[in-house]
Inverse folding.
């Protein structure tokens, strides 16, 4: 390849059979050259067939003019903090590149409707996949939220990748003690470069909710169903991603959504009013200890004790057991189950060293460790979680947060409702 | 009206031919039911956002759609649509049968085949794609075909997803049915060197014939569609969409050219065909290609081994010509045999006493005649044809009785061959002799009519005529 021709340049590719003109594109394979033809299609050409590349025209990018932003009096101000999982992006049809958009100007030019009900502040605080997030990121996001709260914004929207969105929402709910403004996390199940993205609707519904509701909690705002008409405001500690790809992947677990927001109407429905309202609280951050080692272990058939032993040296462990009692294979009932006693002994060792929490793989429902002898045995080992209906994910976050902030009171605080993570009653409608 | 001199007016014309393939959908395992008869369906209401283009400006065609401020209702049936059509799940692996057919067609049109298939997203925001784009990939380029007026270049052969079908529209919503969405579609684009309206028809029918020769395209109205791009000296380009029937292409182009001659200073636009073969404005012409890579689908290398495995089918035209020559059939019967995919040589061997044209007539024309003349909607099975052909081949019944026997079968009856048994020669001659004696004043033709009425289907007309001539 001649030094002069770079990606984005208009070139002529002289091939063994014929010549091709187009824009040189990034290639996914070292043996292939990709050219964007004037028709818009990308054409892959084997390097072995290329005799020469002639530069016809250098890439000439036109700097686009940015529209200024004006703050309107009387409207609430919302800060949009981007953590990755782009909520807005622009497609360059010339090169095929998809560029994420983060500045307030970019956001309002992509979603002009926002300006009708809120003033927008917007900035990038980290740019990453949600699967890579850890406790340090939770602390960082919380500190950025604190800055905005001090700057007197009326609400905050966090854009976030969907995979671990419900872990982050729970983590923020625990960190943000005495929060007095809404903090709403939004994600997108369809990327924002496409016309069918759900990002726009989730973002606008979140902003509309902040503009209209007296609400001071951490929540998630995502699609209610596969259509684009409504979004739900979901409780930070009681929501889980239940589908790999659908827009309505996030469902409340063992509770109801807090509210429904209509995208195309000036309307919200309060479904469950058990949330905090504004009352001049002063935000205090209770951050995570970033060095903690917390495990999350799922019970499965044919388990062996070594798997449990590997958590030796951790600070805490959440067990995702079977069924109502959060059961683990600890009973020796025949010649095939002789290894189970070892499992029991390993759990006993761990429970003596660190807090071990029970939760259930069933996702929905409340644990009751009294109903089976296995559950009773686990309780006797000191495993915590008696009548918890927390998801394993929330239990994991709560354990880490308690170890960071109240290491001496884990047993008593774990079953104490701090951020709406525990339901006292489960009603017939609290299920999908 | 004056005849148009296409050369003088600087006529430029290119075609885009689209054909649906008869296989499951392109990126999921849903069947390609273009009209799913299942009544159970779910409704989903969606909105599309116009993505800004490279300069931050929304594409003119996209803006036109956006201004309508519409929402879209999608009607989906679980028998023909899954989460992929609903845009609730990413595309799954590519339908390889569809890829192979696309490669076949590209090779038949003498195209260069791409080294790798790269799927692109073509932004479409009229709601006809739930995702807001159509997935499309270049398969072949720089091909050519020979026509009566010189070579025509085949610019591209693409493999893409069929769009959803619009079923209702009002000022606020457009309703689409998702049955058709995702059916594999071949798109063939020619260059703009078509000479005139007749030539356009020739090119379109040749390309259609090539597609049908693969035996893998869907049949019926709307399964192969043409878009025509035309311009004349001093005019902008006009794209005409919605040709369902090839027969109208000549008239529509002529009408459009007449319109363009009268028109001055117009913007490029997309127009749709009206029932009276004129056209009306549909939308502005989309700006330069709104394509960007589909990152959910991995590039598919086209290995030499795969290309070597692709066999090229005999063209329908060539096959028909071969049948004409080999069996002395007329071109009409030969084409019908090819269209119906009948293995004629096998029939010829099994029913060797019969004229090839009689066999062809029974297999192709008679079922059509029975449908139109007797209004019987029965689809004949191979064993029905075998029954009739065997009876004639073994001389059990005269060939003239074929139609009547088939009609009986179509009516669901068990045909009684004795009814059609050939008349005894001596008896027949005796009857004719008496008839001639009694009716001396009648013409030969009138007598012939009488005899055929009496011996309905049991005698050979030629034979009767011979006897009559001998006796008079």
């Amino acid at each position: 390849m001649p030094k002069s021709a770079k990606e984005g340049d208009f070139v002529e590719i002289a091939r063994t059979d014929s010549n091709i003109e187009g824009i040189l594109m990034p290639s996914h394979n070292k043996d292939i050259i990709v050219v964007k033809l004037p028709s818009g299609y990308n054409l892959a050409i084997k390097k072995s067939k290329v005799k020469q590349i002639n530069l016809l025209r250098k890439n000439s990018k036109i700097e686009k003019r940015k529209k200024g932003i004006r703050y309107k009096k009387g409207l609430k101000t919302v800060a949009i903090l981007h953590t990755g999982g782009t909520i807005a992006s622009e497609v360059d049809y010339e090169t095929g590149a998809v560029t994420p958009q983060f500045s307030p100007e970019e956001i309002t030019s992509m979603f002009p409707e926002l300006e009708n009900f809120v003033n927008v502040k917007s900035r990038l605080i980290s740019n990453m996949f949600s699967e890579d997030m850890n406790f340090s990121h939770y602390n960082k996001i919380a500190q950025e939220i604190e800055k905005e709260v001090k700057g007197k914004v009326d609400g905050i929207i966090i854009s976030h990748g969907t995979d671990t969105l419900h872990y982050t929402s729970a983590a923020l709910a625990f960190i943000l003690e005495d929060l007095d403004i809404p903090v709403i996390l939004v994600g997108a199940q369809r990327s924002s470069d496409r016309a069918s993205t759900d990002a726009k609707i989730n973002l606008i519904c979140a902003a509309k909710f902040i503009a209209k509701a007296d609400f001071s909690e951490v929540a998630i705002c995502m699609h209610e169903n596969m259509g684009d008409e409504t979004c739900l405001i979901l409780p930070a500690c009681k929501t889980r991603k239940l589908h790999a790809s659908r827009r309505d992947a996030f469902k409340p677990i063992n509770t109801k959504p807090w509210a429904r927001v209509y995208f195309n109407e000036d309307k919200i429905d309060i479904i469950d009013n058990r949330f905090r309202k504004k009352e001049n609280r002063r935000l205090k951050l209770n951050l995570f200890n970033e060095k903690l080692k917390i495990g999350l272990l799922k019970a499965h058939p044919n388990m062996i004790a070594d798997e449990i032993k590997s958590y030796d040296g951790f600070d805490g462990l959440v067990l995702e057991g079977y069924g109502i009692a959060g059961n683990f294979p600890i009973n020796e009932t025949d010649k095939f189950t002789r290894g189970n006693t070892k499992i029991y002994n390993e759990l006993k060792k761990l429970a003596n060293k660190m807090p071990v929490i029970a939760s259930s793989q069933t996702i929905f429902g409340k644990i009751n460790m009294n109903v089976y002898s296995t559950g009773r045995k686990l309780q006797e080992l000191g495993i915590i979680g008696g009548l918890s209906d927390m998801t394993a994910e929330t239990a994991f976050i709560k354990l880490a947060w308690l170890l960071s902030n109240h290491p001496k009171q884990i047993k008593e605080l774990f079953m104490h409702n701090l951020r709406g993570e525990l339901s006292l009653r489960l009603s017939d409608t609290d299920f999908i | 009206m004056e005849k148009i001199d296409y050369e003088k007016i600087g006529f430029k014309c290119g075609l885009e031919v689209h054909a649906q393939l008869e296989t499951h959908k392109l990126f999921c395992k849903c069947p390609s039911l273009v009209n799913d008869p299942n009544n159970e369906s779910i409704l989903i209401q969606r909105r599309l956002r116009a993505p800004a283009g490279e300069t931050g400006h929304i594409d003119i065609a996209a803006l036109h759609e956006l201004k309508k401020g519409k929402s879209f209702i999608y009607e989906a049936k679980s028998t023909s649509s899954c989460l992929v059509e609903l845009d609730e799940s990413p595309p799954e692996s590519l339908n390889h049968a569809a890829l192979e057919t696309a490669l076949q067609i590209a090779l038949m049109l003498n195209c260069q085949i791409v080294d790798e298939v790269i799927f692109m997203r073509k932004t479409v925001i009229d709601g006809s794609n739930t995702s807001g784009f159509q997935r499309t990939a270049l398969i072949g380029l720089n091909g050519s075909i020979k026509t009566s007026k010189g070579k025509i270049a085949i610019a591209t052969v693409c493999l893409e997803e069929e769009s959803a079908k619009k079923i209702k529209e009002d000022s606020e919503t457009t309703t689409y049915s998702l049955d058709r969405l995702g059916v594999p579609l071949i798109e063939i684009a020619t260059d703009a060197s078509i000479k005139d309206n007749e030539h356009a028809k020739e090119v379109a029918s040749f390309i259609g014939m090539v597609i049908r020769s693969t035996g893998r395209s869907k049949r019926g109205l709307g399964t192969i569609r043409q878009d025509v791009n035309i311009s004349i000296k001093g005019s902008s380009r006009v794209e005409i969409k919605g040709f369902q029937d090839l027969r109208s292409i000549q008239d529509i182009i002529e009408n459009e050219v007449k319109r363009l001659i009268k028109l001055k200073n117009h913007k490029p636009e997309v127009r749709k065909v009206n029932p009276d073969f004129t056209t009306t404005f549909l939308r502005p012409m989309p700006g330069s290609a709104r394509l960007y890579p589909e990152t959910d689908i991995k590039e598919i290398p086209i290995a030499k081994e795969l290309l070597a495995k692709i066999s090229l089918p005999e063209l329908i035209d060539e096959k028909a010509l071969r049948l004409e020559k080999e069996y002395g059939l007329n071109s009409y019967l030969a084409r019908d045999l090819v269209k119906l995919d009948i293995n004629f040589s096998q029939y010829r061997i099994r029913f060797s006493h019969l004229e090839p044209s009689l066999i062809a007539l029974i297999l192709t024309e008679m079922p059509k005649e029975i449908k139109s003349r007797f209004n019987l909607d029965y689809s004949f099975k191979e064993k029905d044809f075998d029954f009739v052909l065997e009876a004639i081949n073994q001389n059990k019944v005269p060939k003239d009785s074929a139609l009547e026997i088939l009609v009986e079968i179509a009516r669901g009856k068990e045909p009684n061959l004795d009814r059609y048994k050939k008349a005894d020669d001596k008896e027949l001659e005796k009857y004719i002799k008496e008839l001639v004696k009694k009716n001396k004043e009648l013409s030969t033709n009138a007598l012939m009519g009488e005899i055929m009425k009496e011996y309905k289907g049991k005698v050979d007309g030629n034979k009767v005529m011979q006897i009559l001539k001998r006796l008079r």
In short: Chain A has a mean pLDDT of 92.
